[in-house]
């Protein structure tokens, strides 16, 4: 993604996990580590997805180290698809091995947002989560975990108005009982074609 990208690996519940680390420039104030989850593994989702890269760039621009990783069974990551359960364990393994005790942010796109919601729920009682970013959340296809009320101000939910993969209405049905705000991108599709700079800007503003 940039000159500061490092290719790493870590140990997960199903074996090796492939990881990419994008680090901010040395003159940035280091804010913490953001772990970012990719779209559905069975439909071509990888850590190189353009939306995932865009989210990572936004974090890096704001002084965060961005950690992308491939879920089990994707690329060189060992294991097999596990409907989100094992993938949440993968994400928690990456958090444990790359974040340490410093500030943490969690983000995800589509299926990755679903996994991220459950990782947040698992971590919330154990440590502070500084920022949460959920883009194109797959609410119509999976049971998203609710976001704890005290995390709402730290959470950015973004969805495309014209998303034909996950209808905006399903995201509103998930968010409404929580009174969790949703940022809607007018005419935006699931992959935000032609609108990635806008998507990045929204994330940058949330992190500022």
What does this entry show, briefly?
This protein is an alpha/beta fold and 208 residues long.
Can you give a write-up of this model?
By secondary structure, this protein is α/β, with parallel strands linked by helices. The protein is 28% helix and 23% strand. It has an eight-stranded mixed sheet, with helices on both faces. The chain is globular, with a radius of gyration of 15 Å. The model has no long low-confidence stretch (mean pLDDT 96).
Report helical residue fraction. Answer: 25-40%
- Write out the CATH superfamily name: Alpha/Beta hydrolase fold, catalytic domain
Radius of gyration: 15 Å
Task: Report the sheet with the most strands, covering strand number, pairing sense and barrel closure.
Answer: 8 strands, mixed
Average residue-wise pLDDT: 96
Task: Please report the total strand number as a whole number.
Answer: 8
Q: Order of SSEs, N→C?
A: EEEHEHEHEEHEH
Helix segment count? 5
User: What class would the helix/strand composition place it in?
Assistant: alpha/beta
Major sheet strand order = 1-2-4-3-5-6-7-8
- Reported by name, the CATH topology is Rossmann fold
Domain count: 1
% residues in beta strands: 15-25%
CATH class: Alpha Beta
3D shape: globular
Produce the secondary structure layout.
Blueprint: E1 5-12, E2 15-22, E3 32-37, H1 50-61, E4 64-69, H2 85-98, E5 104-109, H3 111-123, E6 131-135, E7 155-160, H4 168-175, E8 183-185, H5 196-207
Parallel strand pairs: 3-4, 3-5, 5-6, 6-7, 7-8
Antiparallel strand pairs: 1-2, 2-4
Keywords:
208 residues; 8 strands; 8-stranded mixed β-sheet; Rossmann fold; alpha/beta; 28% helix; globular
